[in-house]
Design brief:
globular, eight-stranded mixed beta sheet
Length: 238
Amino acid sequence: MFSTLKTCTMPPSQNNLPLGEPVDTTPAPWPQPVTLNGRFGRIEKLVAEKHGPALWHAVAGHDDLWTYMKTGPFSDEAAFMELQKERATSSDPFTYVILDHEGAPLGLSCLMNIRPDLRVIEVGNIFYAPALQRTPLGTEAQYLLMRYVFEDLGYRRYEWKTSTLNAASRRAGQRYGFTFEGIFRQNDIVKGRNRDTAWYSIIDKEWPTRKAAFEIWLAPDNFDSEGRQKKTLAHIEA
């Protein structure tokens, strides 16, 4: 658990101009190779040789997964593995693999653009194999990372950014409780094409409410005997 942070006391403005509230200035820790266990599966640090081959078989042939990403699609397993080896040794993005109860890797999610001095971090480079999409584990994985970032690492801002054209990603960010903040026009170039980027965030003051909604949704009594949700996450948040 993140320890109590020191607060920097600012003197009042001498010219009576408004100032922001005082903020803890102690840097947050860097993400670590932790294992985050949930009811539907777990998250652990990506190890290319351990997770890569099975992950390739889970996503091979689904080239649409890479449409809005800077990498992919990949011609073969060897090309895919090169990226996983690079990601596994990178500290930013810091890549986690999402596994089901049997230990099968079904997706990746990264903590990235890490700014410990500001306690700001982004979740991104997310891709889910078809077997993970629209499943309780897919939602639980995002909850587990959020909880880790806010409660264990003590970050104050958690960002979600996506192409304005990526409708599925924009819906997911809103479903997970991120607040839309605006569009950065011509913010990037991806595979030779313009990208306007939609920005979303959750801040630490909002986390208790978001956490409560996730935990109500993930509770066993929110699913019927066939594993179908009774109440949607959006309904619970509302």
